[in-house]
Protein: (2Fe-2S)-binding protein
Amino acid sequence: MNHAITLTVNGVVREASVPARRLLSDCLRHDLGLTGTHVGCEHGVCGACTVLLDGEPVRSCLTFAVTADGHEITTVEGLAGDDGLSPVQRAFTECHGLQCGFCTPGFLCTVTAFLRETPAPTEEEVLEAVSGNLCRCTGYQNIIKAVHRAAEIQAEEAR
Ligand code: FES
Ligand code: FES
Structure:
């Protein structure tokens, strides 16, 4: 039996008909065609599937789509604004914070939410913030730099 759900995804109202156990990650990718959200481990370890649910980062592979009914979702496709890439996206580009890019959507969503709460983070806070997202390529150095750079860009743009 399917359930009709309505999600606001990246500011757009979307409807889907899903089984009760449909994962939010599968709903986004397969029902709504938003394949920017990546699925790695499928059991909550890698963070690749992270999206924002009402602004808070969640593992979409651990979230049933029906539980997101009536809520707002932001995926990596929704991070850029009308005037281009977001500060976090620009910082990852500038600092070479990605290689294969598989982990990147999850990092971008995680870091976007983190900097909203912690706009001027310490080194320890940045390490803690990204500790739930796995990257097999970069060794994290440039990701850490990118988070600090994103904080700088946001501060510059807020002036
Ligand atoms: S795919 Fe969701 S945490 Fe790895
Ligand atoms: S850039 Fe390849 S897994 Fe992170």
